[in-house]
Amino acid sequence: MGCRDVHAATVLAFLSGTASVAGLLAAVLLPNWRQMRLYTFNKNERNVTIYTGLWIKCARFDGSRDCVIYDPQWYTAVDQLDLRVLQFALPLSMFTAVSALFLCMIGMCNTAFVSSVPNVKLAKCLVNSAGCHLVAGLLFLLACAICLTPSVWVIFYNNYLNRKYEPVFSFDISVFIAIASAGGLFFTSVLLFLWYCACKSLPSPFWQPLYSHAPSMHSYASQPYSARSRLSAIEIDIPVVTHAS
Q1: How many CB atoms within 10 Å of residue 126?
Q2: Measured distance CA(239)–CA(121) in Å, rounded
Q3: 224, 227, 233, 238 alpha-carbon torsion, rounded to 10°
Q4: What is the pTM of this model?
Q5: Could you name the Gene Ontology cellular component terms for this entry (predicted)?
């Protein structure tokens, strides 16, 4: 597997990263991080479920899809620590993942459209595709950690709320979407790491963000003969004279 080709692994990694970012966006926008179900013993009234998101809060009667109480300013008055942390963690994870996608796209475009024989004078400015994919894999792994840790914490914090107050709290679908998106980010980073390890030549250094010199420079320009080589050629041409006794 050579670094000069666009392989299915890099394309699959880009698609997986894009799907994971879309999942994170859905988890951020959906008001379904925590449910608080309030029961009533009055037969003339219906139970109420309060859906709590990162930015809004909505209260609905059972069997109704309309919000009886809709609070669009909930993000300024969040009183639950796990949701407050998620307000900062998930956008940061999305920004990191989008940066990784941008690097991944640069690496794929470089391998697909850049000539395999670079200009020697511009070699130091050329982007190394393997380096782009390596950094993108690290960013995807970082985005996974930023997203997964607070998302799993919601489950434990929900149990804490049930013990502290009443067992009326439950985590909702956004938790599963965020954890699945974190898994997609981890899968994307693994694909990029595998591609990097497979395409990287063994003698090359492990860290290759930019070309420090033109790759395989000796194949693009003829090397000048050294002084030793010229002397060797002269010595070969000079006949050896021996004196007979």
Answers
A1: 15
A2: 43
A3: 150
A4: 0.72
A5: bicellular tight junction; plasma membrane
C-alpha 71: how far from chain center: 33
Bridge partners of 51? 35, 58
pLDDT interval class at 243 (50, 70, 90):
low
Instruction: Name the residue type at position 49.
Output: T
Do 192 and 20 form a contact (C-beta atoms < 8 A)? no
pLDDT digits (tens, 9 = 90+) for 1-37: 445 556 778 888 899 999 999 999 999 998 888 888 8
Closest to 145 measured CA to CA, from 97, 87, 107: 97
* Alpha carbons 91 and 113: distance in angstroms, whole number: 33
- Return the residue matching tokens 């970012």: 21
Residue 127 gets which letter from DSSP? B
Residue scoring higher pLDDT (3 or 48)? 48
CA-to-CA distance for 181 and 90, rounded, in angstroms? 11
Beta strands in 62-150 (DSSP E): 69-71
